Amino acid sequence: MGYLWRVRLSSFLAGASTASAAGFFLLYKDHLVARAAITQQVEDVKRIFEKHYETLNHRIIAMEKREESGANKEASD
Question: Which of 4, 44, 47, 60 is at a distance of 20 to 30 A from 33, taking alpha carbons?
Fold first, then answer.
């Protein structure tokens, strides 16, 4: 009776450890996929903000040039 109980217990522990390892592997792969997706989303947002920044920067430069040329005209009058 003791031998049978020991065999069943070792079989249960082997199955539990195998299931644990498989579960860990699946969670790890899921973590990697989620991390890659989040990284891609952050890169997309970064690229969009850089475009907006450049557009705003060009607009500010154009406004400053207009103000400078207006100030130069007033000074020459």
Answer: 47
